[in-house]
């Protein structure tokens, strides 16, 4: 059994045992008051849900018994029958049998034969008397007798959130204790601190693991979405789901739901061609849409890929110049990936541009903001006439983040690793100045470089001063960040180290400062600001000479 199948079976068992307990309670209420409409409605609903879940999992016996029971309770609800006489032991026995079947599934045992029960339920639906012989009556007395609790429990997400917040506080204290143990020469303290650190680490990963769910729980909702949108657009689309068993934090999955829905709808409405257009282009009439997930180091990559018309890069380049987002000479030098990044700019695609760039930019700024809020990235790759792929790069957890710590003006700052491309130390001869901007050549790409100190101290509409190589003295420690397919070098005073941090929201009025994404507490007890790379990149683009 695959991990995904095991996960689905466990979810089925948890819900099925919950349904069974509720059924037992409601049928007892019905016995006390045969006219209890609420109990009848609940019994009908529970049977219907159990039937659907069991059939989806391939548990035919459970599905068939629940279906027949649903029919009988439907007749009782509609006043076509009365809960009395021989019907009572049959329905009680039916619920007990469902309990047996559910437990057999949970224990991996062979399911008991239910044909006699099904025959009696069928007689009840036809208004006939069931066949209750003495042997069956004895069996029904022996069946509500074994009481069991599910191995699984449902936990409200808010409780897990609270637990994760407490875990974050514990991690901060762990780092402080470890720092103290290094400063104080005490073998006993060192031993206790090491043990505390191991326990805290294990607890951290256990809590994070409890919040993980398979992306299939979201992906499974898209076949219907694709069908509805394709029908409305008059297109023939085949959806393929891949990597449904990849695990990710439930809160992250919740946050990207609307973004993913937008990308899928957009791919069908604007990315994929009509049947006539595809045939004219020599393509198969049916468009292909792939929704996939895969793990990559500490990240999860979720992709929406179509084999449609692709994005016209030159149209995007022209519109970026018209909007004043980039100069014409600079635009001519941009790579295709850098040009497509303009699609994520707020309000880039208006009605006029929808036709020219296949509508692919509409609303992408909103999608980008959702991904940015997670500390993730959104990338787009496209080939004209062949298709487009949107890639969401997501952290597996949003509570604890990997970060690079550095020093500036004798203060510690943190940059999320999600947006950290690399760190380099360069001498002044490695730089050049073009158009007042400091550049360095890295991996066959000219990367703009700016002093983080200068960037953080800009006032109002004040632009960045034109760069001069003469201001560079000695070795320069530079952090290369990457946002929206744009690389930017930030000159800092000193690299410190890489470590996991717990990011806390900044209190008012500091929460209005865009350049900072939050705050964390270091092991030394020092407060450390966490820089917001998207905001820094946007500030540089707006203020550069």
UniProtKB/TrEMBL annotation:
<dbReference type="Pfam" id="PF01584">
    <property type="entry name" value="CheW"/>
</dbReference>
<dbReference type="InterPro" id="IPR036641">
    <property type="entry name" value="HPT_dom_sf"/>
</dbReference>
<dbReference type="Pfam" id="PF02518">
    <property type="entry name" value="HATPase_c"/>
</dbReference>
<dbReference type="GO" id="GO:0005524">
    <property type="term" value="F:ATP binding"/>
</dbReference>
<dbReference type="Pfam" id="PF02895">
    <property type="entry name" value="H-kinase_dim"/>
</dbReference>
<dbReference type="Pfam" id="PF01627">
    <property type="entry name" value="Hpt"/>
</dbReference>
<keyword id="KW-0808">Transferase</keyword>
<dbReference type="InterPro" id="IPR051315">
    <property type="entry name" value="Bact_Chemotaxis_CheA"/>
</dbReference>
<dbReference type="InterPro" id="IPR004105">
    <property type="entry name" value="CheA-like_dim"/>
</dbReference>
<dbReference type="InterPro" id="IPR036097">
    <property type="entry name" value="HisK_dim/P_sf"/>
</dbReference>
<dbReference type="InterPro" id="IPR003594">
    <property type="entry name" value="HATPase_dom"/>
</dbReference>
<keyword id="KW-0067">ATP-binding</keyword>
<dbReference type="InterPro" id="IPR036061">
    <property type="entry name" value="CheW-like_dom_sf"/>
</dbReference>
<keyword id="KW-0145">Chemotaxis</keyword>
<feature type="domain" description="CheW-like">
    <location>
        <begin position="400"/>
        <end position="542"/>
    </location>
</feature>
<dbReference type="InterPro" id="IPR004358">
    <property type="entry name" value="Sig_transdc_His_kin-like_C"/>
</dbReference>
<feature type="modified residue" description="Phosphohistidine">
    <location>
        <position position="48"/>
    </location>
</feature>
<protein>
    <recommendedName>
        <fullName>Chemotaxis protein CheA</fullName>
        <ecNumber>2.7.13.3</ecNumber>
    </recommendedName>
</protein>
<dbReference type="InterPro" id="IPR037006">
    <property type="entry name" value="CheA-like_homodim_sf"/>
</dbReference>
<dbReference type="InterPro" id="IPR002545">
    <property type="entry name" value="CheW-lke_dom"/>
</dbReference>
<feature type="domain" description="HPt">
    <location>
        <begin position="1"/>
        <end position="105"/>
    </location>
</feature>
<dbReference type="InterPro" id="IPR036890">
    <property type="entry name" value="HATPase_C_sf"/>
</dbReference>
<keyword id="KW-0418">Kinase</keyword>
<dbReference type="GO" id="GO:0000155">
    <property type="term" value="F:phosphorelay sensor kinase activity"/>
</dbReference>
<dbReference type="GO" id="GO:0005737">
    <property type="term" value="C:cytoplasm"/>
</dbReference>
<keyword id="KW-0547">Nucleotide-binding</keyword>
<feature type="domain" description="Histidine kinase">
    <location>
        <begin position="159"/>
        <end position="398"/>
    </location>
</feature>
<comment type="function">
    <text>Involved in the transmission of sensory signals from the chemoreceptors to the flagellar motors. CheA is autophosphorylated; it can transfer its phosphate group to either CheB or CheY.</text>
</comment>
<keyword id="KW-0902">Two-component regulatory system</keyword>
<keyword id="KW-0597">Phosphoprotein</keyword>
<dbReference type="InterPro" id="IPR008207">
    <property type="entry name" value="Sig_transdc_His_kin_Hpt_dom"/>
</dbReference>
<dbReference type="GO" id="GO:0006935">
    <property type="term" value="P:chemotaxis"/>
</dbReference>
<dbReference type="InterPro" id="IPR005467">
    <property type="entry name" value="His_kinase_dom"/>
</dbReference>
């Amino acid at each position: 059994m695959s991990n995904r199948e095991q996960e689905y079976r466990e979810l089925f068992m948890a819900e099925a045992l919950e349904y069974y307990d509720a059924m037992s309670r409601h049928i007892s209420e019905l016995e006390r008051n045969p006219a209890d409409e609420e109990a009848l409605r609940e019994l009908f609903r529970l049977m219907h849900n159990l039937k659907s879940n069991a059939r989806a999992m391939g548990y035919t016996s459970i599905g068939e018994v629940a279906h027949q029971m649903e029919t009988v309770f439907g007749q009782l609800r509609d006043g076509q029958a009365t809960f009395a006489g021989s019907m009572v032991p049959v329905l009680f026995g039916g619920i007990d049998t469902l309990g047996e079947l559910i437990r057999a599934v949970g224990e991996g045992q062979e399911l008991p034969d239910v044909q006699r029960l099904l025959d009696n339920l069928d007689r009840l639906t036809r208004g006939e008397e069931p066949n209750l012989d003495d042997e069956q009556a004895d069996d029904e007395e022996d069946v509500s007798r074994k009481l069991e609790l599910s191995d699984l429990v449902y936990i409200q997400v808010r409780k897990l959130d609270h637990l994760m917040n407490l875990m974050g506080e514990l991690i901060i204290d762990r780092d402080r204790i470890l720092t103290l143990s290094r400063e104080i020469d005490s073998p006993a303290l060192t031993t206790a601190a090491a043990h505390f650190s191991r326990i805290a680490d294990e607890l951290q990963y256990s809590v994070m693991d409890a919040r993980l769910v398979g992306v299939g729980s979201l992906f499974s909702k898209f076949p219907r979405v694709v069908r509805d949108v394709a029908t409305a657009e008059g297109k023939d689309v085949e959806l393929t789901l891949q990597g449904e068993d990849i695990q990710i934090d439930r809160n992250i999955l919740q946050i990207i739901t609307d973004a993913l829905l937008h990308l899928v709808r957009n791919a069908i409405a604007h990315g994929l061609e009509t049947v006539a257009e595809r045939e004219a282009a020599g393509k198969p009439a049916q468009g292909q849409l792939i929704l996939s997930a895969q793990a990559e180091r500490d990240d999860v990559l979720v992709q929406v890929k179509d084999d449609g018309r692709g994005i016209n890069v030159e149209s995007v380049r022209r519109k970026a110049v018209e909007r004043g987002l980039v100069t014409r000479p600079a635009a001519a030098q941009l790579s295709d990936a850098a040009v497509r990044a303009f699609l994520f700019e707020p309000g880039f695609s208006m009605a006029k541009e929808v036709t020219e760039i296949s509508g692919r930019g509409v609303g992408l700024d909103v999608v980008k903001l959702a991904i940015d809020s997670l500390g993730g990235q959104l990338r787009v790759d496209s080939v004209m006439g062949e298709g487009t792929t949107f890639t969401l790069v997501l952290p597996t957890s949003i509570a604890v983040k990997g970060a690079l710590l550095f020093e500036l003006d004798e203060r510690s700052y943190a940059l999320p690793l999600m947006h950290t491309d690399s760190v380099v130390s360069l001498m002044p001869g490695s730089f050049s100045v073009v158009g007042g901007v400091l550049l360095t050549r890295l991996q066959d790409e000219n990367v703009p470089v700016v002093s983080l100190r200068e960037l953080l101290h800009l006032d109002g509409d004040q632009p960045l001063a034109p760069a001069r190589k003469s201001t560079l003295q000695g070795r320069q420690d530079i952090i290369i960040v990457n946002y929206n397919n744009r690389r930017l070098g930030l000159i800092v005073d000193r690299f410190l180290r890489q470590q996991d941090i717990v990011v806390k929201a900044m209190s008012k009025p500091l929460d209005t400062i865009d350049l900072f994404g939050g705050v964390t507490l270091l092991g030394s007890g020092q407060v450390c600001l966490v820089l917001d790379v998207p905001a820094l990149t946007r500030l540089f683009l707006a203020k550069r000479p």
